[in-house]
Amino acid sequence: MAKHYLAVDLGASSGRTIIGTLKNGTLTIKEINRFWNGPTEINGTLYWDFVHLFRNIQDGIALAKKEFGSGLVSMGVATWGVDFGLIDGQGKLLGNPVNYRDARTNGMTEKVFAAVGKETVFQQTGIQFMQINTLYQLYSLAQSKDAQYLQADKLLFVPDLLNFWLTGRMAANRSFASTSQMYNPVTKDWAFDLLKKLNLRTDLFAPFADPGTVLGSYLGLPVVNVGSHDTASAFAAVPVAQGEQCAFLSSGTWSLLGTELPAPVINDNVLAANFTNEVGVCDTIRFLKNLSGLWIMQELRRVWAEQGADYTWDEMAEMALLSEPFQFFINPGDEAFLAPGNMPVRIQDYCERTGQKRPQEPGQIMRAAYEGLALLYADTYGTLEQLSGKKMEVLRIVGGGCQNKTLSQFAADATGRAVVTGPIEATAIGNLIVQMLAMGDIASLDEGRAIIRNSFAHESKTYLPQGSAEWLDALKKWRTFKMNS
């Protein structure tokens, strides 16, 4: 008999609900509805539209219940990281959550380091330093004596807020809390000592609930606390066999490059490399680095479309391939590329600022973006192997970005490793696997991954490295320009 599970998958640019059907050991998926997500600027602040998101989630649930009826077993929610909503004592949302790209965190990392020291923050959290992290968002609210911050009864991270609206239960998912830089992965509790030193409120947090917990129900449908940070779900869906040594790359707006470990690694070398220890499903650690992803390409496409050149993704890739290689070098992780804006001009300005010529043609700009991202992967890959103590001959890329054949081949070329791609809908699939675990329909994560390997083998493609010597030379040049930026 077939069983059906509903995954709510909210990324930083779109949301959707997806049905997973498990029958005779094979998992198939079907999209129920898809809807826009993204920031809206009002008076200089970037907001998320949470009423819009919840309404579309409700629509997806209603459509799924209508189509699958009593065969619908459960549902789970996974979203992008770090953002949150503030709730008053009556359980009301005080205001639309603010987008992590908002300028309120500008300068906050420096203020936090001045107050307690960078080493202290890392020792207590094991998390990569990014100005978008919840810690710096919250610190900015405290510094400005924000009225909502002072009035709030609880802070609920994005998926926890949606689960609260669905079930009435306030609970903090560890996989998401670990992205905040306010969670201690060693003590498995909030980093209270750090928060107190920064004079941040320590009474805002909901009790923890581990991935795999049933939180309650919505219209009779059990709501499972999955790997609610989308990367936790994506990593759960990497179809790695038990004992296989490989690197994981979740590819979308962001690139999350790392591996799965049984325990956090917190030391001076990890601090210097700015790696992160985030919580995964089934008591694992996602040891990784958050890198820029397809964001730059998305912004290039948006800006060019606004200027009248509505290129398809295939056309943009073709333009890049027709351009001469290794003429322009950019570091996609540079702060100049973080916020929305005129990305073609920013790439030109970056090249000029680092002593290069300005790329003029769209193809040159696209080539710089693709090569820059692949070289960023290569630069990070070697460090990952050193810090984890694991030799990884294969890079497994999952998520929507794994469909980008040009980037996948460039990643193989730059890292000198075989790249194996798929599944495409990794976040939703990992979400579904944890639901199956929670409902007792599979016995382990390894069993779930075996189902994924068998069910989505048709999506898998292998890319072997080519021209490695040229890419090694390019990596040396890229590092020079990175240092000069």
Q: What is the number of independent domains?
A: 2
What is the CA-based Rg, rounded?
Answer: 22 Å
Uncertain spans, ≥5 residues at pLDDT below 50?
Answer: none
Q: What is the CATH topology of the largest domain?
A: Nucleotidyltransferase, domain 5
How much helical structure, as a percent, in the residues? 40-55%
CATH 2nd-level architecture of the largest domain: 2-Layer Sandwich
Q: Just give the CATH class of the largest domain.
A: Alpha Beta
The oligomeric state of the chains shown is: single chain
What class would the helix/strand composition place it in? alpha/beta
- How far apart the termini lie comes to 58 Å
Total DSSP helices: 18
Output the strand order for the largest sheet. 17-18-16-15-19-20-21
Q: What fraction of residues sit in β-strands?
A: 15-25%
Envelope shape:
globular
Instruction: Please count the beta strands (DSSP E, at least 2 residues each).
Output: 21
